[in-house]
Amino acid sequence: MNISLGCDHGAFALKEHLKGYLTRQGHNVVDCGTDSTDSCDYPIYARAAAQQVASGECERGIVLCTTGIGVSVVANKVRGVRCALCRDLLSAQLTRQHNDANMMALAGGFTGPFEAERLVDAFLGTSFEGGRHQRRVELVMETEGL
């Protein structure tokens, strides 16, 4: 699977850890930055990762900052993206099952590397249930551009 990654300085170490982890799992990772712990503006990197997903170049995306909040807000501004902040396994699973989320946000300041691996595995390994949830996803997508 092609997966885009984007982070700010507050989550750089976790992004680098996940990049290696995902590559070892056989995924192709598109690293949209940042490339250091130097202070930077998270919208630049979250937008770049989200655009990779929206364009279809990547099937999924993961954005990270200290809280995961800012990057999730930015990603959700990109047409076609459904990004959820995941802080536990159930949220990582349910956002795929019920929301067909194509991106997840992680809180680098609160999520350790091995917990992040578990969340990513749950997110990537869970399928969309469709059914009644399809109608709801369509209603969410109709909201774009209002």
The CATH superfamily title = Sugar-phosphate isomerase, RpiB/LacA/LacB
**Fraction of residues in β-strands:** 15-25%
| Global shape | globular
Write down the Rg.
14 Å
Number of structural domains:
1
What is the helix fraction of residues, given as a range? 40-55%
Quick structural summary:
The protein is of the alpha/beta class and 146 residues long. Helices cover 47% and strands 16% of the residues.
Q: What does the model show?
A:
By secondary structure, the protein is α/β, with parallel strands linked by helices. The chain has helices at 12-24, 42-54, 69-75, 89-99, 113-125, 132-142, and strands at 2-7, 28-31, 60-65, 83-85, 103-107. Strands 2-1-3-5-4 form a five-stranded parallel β-sheet, sandwiched between helices. Helix 2 (42-54) packs across helix 3 and helix 4 (89-99) packs parallel to helix 5 (113-125). It is globular. 41% of the residues are buried. The model has no long low-confidence stretch (mean pLDDT 97).
Tell me the layout of helices and strands:
Layout: E1 2-7, H1 12-24, E2 28-31, H2 42-54, E3 60-65, H3 69-75, E4 83-85, H4 89-99, E5 103-107, H5 113-125, H6 132-142
Parallel strand pairs: 1-2, 1-3, 3-5, 4-5
Structural descriptors:
globular, 146 residues, 16% strand, 6 helices, alpha/beta
